[in-house]
Write a structure and sequence with these properties.
400 residues; alpha/beta; Rossmann fold; 2 domains; 16% strand
C-alpha cells in the first residue's frame, strides 16, 4: 500500500467513524511532498511526506489528519499576518491538541499545555517566551525551552522549511501558499476564513444528523461560527489603516491580470511616528497594559515605527522615545492624581511630531480637547467602556 493509499484509507475511516472530521478532511486535496517533515495544510491542500505516513500507525495517522484539519477549521491558515511562522505553528498546536488529545492517538512528544486549553492562538502566541519556546523535546511539559532561531531562518514567509513543524503532528501554512497569488502576497485571507466557517457549519450539521458530534467539538463549532472579536485583530486593523501604502506598477496586481486589467500592487506599508499615551492616574491595570504593550511591540517591530510614549495624569509626567524596532514589551506607568487628556494633544502640537496615529490607554474619565486632532486616535480601555469619547475609536480589552 502506497503512502497516498494509506492516507485515503485513514480518511475513509474518519468519514465513517468521525463524520465531522472526515467531511472536513475530504475538502483537502492530497499532495505528495517529500520535502516536508510530516504533513501540512493551507486550507485547500493536505501535503504529506510519504516517509512520515509510512512510519506511523493508522490510528496515529487519523489523529494527525484531525489535528491538521482543525488548523483549517480554526482558520489558523488565514490569521498569521506578519507573525513569526514557526512560533505561530507552536501556538496553533497548543490551541488544537487539547481538543483531540484524549480522543485520538497522536505522535509522542506533542505540544500540549492545559493552561492554553481555552485560549485563542493569538493569545497563546503572545504568551510564548521570546525564544519561541515549545521545543518538541519538551513534549507535554509546556511552553518552555528550545531556541528556534536556526529553524526560523531557514523558513520562507509561508512557514516552509526543515524545521517548520515543531509539534510533530503537521504544520499549518498560509492560505493558498502553494499557488502563485499567495506567493506574491495576494492571497484572499478573508475569503479563506469565510469558506471554512461555512464548511465547519455544514460538517457539524452532518455529524449531528448521525448523532456523532463530540461535546468538545460542539463548543469549537460555536466559537468558529459565532467568534468573539479578538482585541488584537482590532488593534492590528487600526494600525494597518494608519499605515501609508506605497503602490507600484511593477509588478502589477496579479489578482486582476487574468481579466486583462493592469493595476498597481501594494509594495509596502509604512507606519509613520506613533504616539502612545498612558493615563497614569491609576485607571489602567498593569496586566492589561502589559498584554497590549506586548502586542504593540510586535506590530512596531514589523512596521519599523518610531514611537513616542507619554505618561500623563493631569499633566505630562514623563516622555520616552523609542527608535524604529526598539519599542519595549512592557511599559511602566507611574503617576497619580486627576486625568486630563489635553496635555498629550498639546504636547503633540508643540513638539512638531506629526503622528500617523495615537494610542491612548485610559478609562475615558477626564477632560477631552475641544476639537478632533485630525489624526486617528484609538482609546484603549481596560474592560467595558463607560463613556463615549468625542472623537476616535474605542478598543475594549476584556479579561482573559
Amino acid at each position: 500500500m502506497t503512502a497516498k493509499e494509506k492516507l485515503i484509507k485513514a480518511r475513509a475511516a474518519l468519514v465513517l467513524d468521525e463524520p465531522f472530521f472526515g467531511s472536513l478532511v475530504l475538502r483537502l486535496e492530497l499532495k505528495e511532498d517529500s520535502s516536508c517533515e510530516t504533513l501540512w495544510v493551507d486550507g485547500s491542500t493536505l501535503g504529506f511526506s510519504p516517509s512520515f505516513v509510512d512510519s506511523v500507525s493508522m490510528d496515529v495517522l487519523k489523529g494527525c489528519l484531525c489535528h491538521e484539519v482543525l488548523h483549517c477549521a480554526l482558520t489558523h491558515h488565514a490569521r498569521r499576518g506578519s507573525r513569526d511562522s514557526r512560533r505561530w505553528n507552536i501556538a496553533a498546536d497548543y490551541a488544537v491538541n487539547p481538543i483531540i488529545k484524549d480522543k485520538f492517538s497522536l505522535p509522542d512528544g506533542i505540544l500540549f499545555d492545559p493552561g492554553f486549553a481555552e485560549l485563542s492562538v493569538e493569545d497563546i502566541y503572545s504568551r510564548l517566551p521570546d525564544d519561541k519556546g515549545g521545543d518538541r523535546s519538551q513534549g507535554d511539559s509546556g511552553a518552555g525551552g528550545g531556541s528556534s532561531d536556526e529553524g526560523s531562518q531557514a523558513e520562507d514567509d509561508s512557514g516552509r522549511g526543515p524545521d517548520a513543524d515543531p509539534g510533530g503532528c503537521g504544520e499549518v501554512r498560509d492560505a493558498g501558499s502553494g499557488d502563485e497569488g499567495a506567493a506574491s502576497g495576494e492571497a484572499d485571507f478573508s475569503q479563506a476564513e469565510a469558506d471554512w466557517k461555512v464548511a465547519v457549519a455544514q460538517a457539524a450539521q452532518q455529524a449531528r444528523a448521525f448523532g456523532r458530534l463530540p461535546a468538545g467539538v460542539e463548543r469549537l463549532v460555536d466559537e468558529v461560527i459565532n467568534p468573539r472579536v479578538d482585541w488584537r485583530a482590532i488593534l492590528r486593523r487600526f494600525m494597518d489603516t494608519a499605515a501609508k501604502s506605497d503602490y507600484s506598477w511593477v509588478p502589477p496586481n496579479r489578482r486582476h491580470v487574468y481579466a486583462g486589467l493592469y493595476l498597481p500592487s501594494c509594495r509596502n506599508s509604512e507606519l509613520g511616528p506613533v504616539v502612545v499615551a498612558v493615563d497614569t492616574s491609576g485607571s489602567i491595570g498593569d496586566e492589561m497594559l502589559g498584554r497590549v504593550a506586548a502586542e504593540l511591540s510586535a506590530i512596531f517591530q514589523d512596521a519599523r515605527a518610531e514611537v513616542h510614549v507619554l505618561y500623563c495624569d493631569a499633566k505630562i509626567q514623563a516622555v520616552e522615545y523609542f527608535p524604529a524596532g526598539d519599542f519595549p514589551s512592557k511599559l511602566n506607568a507611574k503617576g497619580g492624581g486627576g486625568t486630563d487628556f489635553r496635555p498629550v494633544f498639546d504636547w503633540i502640537e508643540g513638539s512638531g511630531v506629526i503622528p500617523s496615529c495615537i494610542i491612548y490607554f485610559s478609562d475615558l474619565e477626564g477632560e477631552f480637547p475641544d476639537a478632533d486632532p485630525g489624526f486617528p486616535v484609538l482609546w484603549v480601555v481596560d474592560g467595558k467602556a463607560q463613556r463615549v469619547p468625542p472623537f476616535g475609536e474605542v478598543l475594549e480589552v476584556l479579561g482573559e
